[in-house]
Write a structure and sequence with these properties.
Shape: globular
CATH topology: TIM Barrel
CATH architecture: Alpha-Beta Barrel
Helix content: 40-55%
Number of domains: 1
Strand content: 5-15%
Distance between the termini: 7 Å
Length: about 280
Amino acid sequence: MLTDAHCHPASLAGRFPGGAAAAEDERRRLGVACAASSATLGEFEFHERLSLEAAAAGAPPVLPCFAVHPQMPLYGKSADGEGLAVLETLAASGRLAAVGETGFDLFGSAFRETERRQELLFSAHLDAALRLGLPIVLHVRRAMHKVFARGAELKRCRAVVFHSWSGTAGEGEALLRRGINAFFSFGTTVALNHLGAMRCCALFPAETLLTETDAPYQPLRGRPFSRHADLPRILETIAALRREAGNDASDAAELEAAVELNFRSAFGLEAGTRV
């Protein structure tokens, strides 16, 4: 079944024709299980409501995640501010499915100026993930050296999900060799001729692959936003790339089943949980 390892339902609701109800109806109709990324308490509570309502209706799960996004220091959020207090509150109450998206964004001089604050934020998030035994979802731009510097700690994490993987094939293979339980998530970039992402999703072991939409932030060409309905095209593209590389003979349906197992493993879903 379809799985979306990284999306923003609260933001998607603001762009989707018909709003939140229509966006959630599409998710349920397609049978998509998703991990919902939150950077504010309001977003988290929105996703938590979706999660509770989906569970009550027997619909595929919404997994609420939270972190102070690594871009937020640029906009005046301090490393010891409100966001980290929210993280600790959610962690203490057992409401988190995963810690994320956290990580490093060093794309451009403005973000590089907040590097030290990003490091402090990441340390707090990594500590929470380790204390709680939760997966951690990473946003990494121009900062893979930061990830490797934390390799020993990441190796202790239950799972490390790389949202919209932007590293090289060699970097991904090196993370796996170091014993990190890494999952590499791919979205619309593979259908937009992003050559690095295309090469990686073709070559990585099938048991490390995840699919995502980053909805609404990574639209297909000519579309106003990304949505759960983009997942079949993402899967078809990945399956074709893997066949062309001689790495896998699976069709999209077979790959979808494999990715579902990876999603369950990464986010700790029990075998009987509906996805």
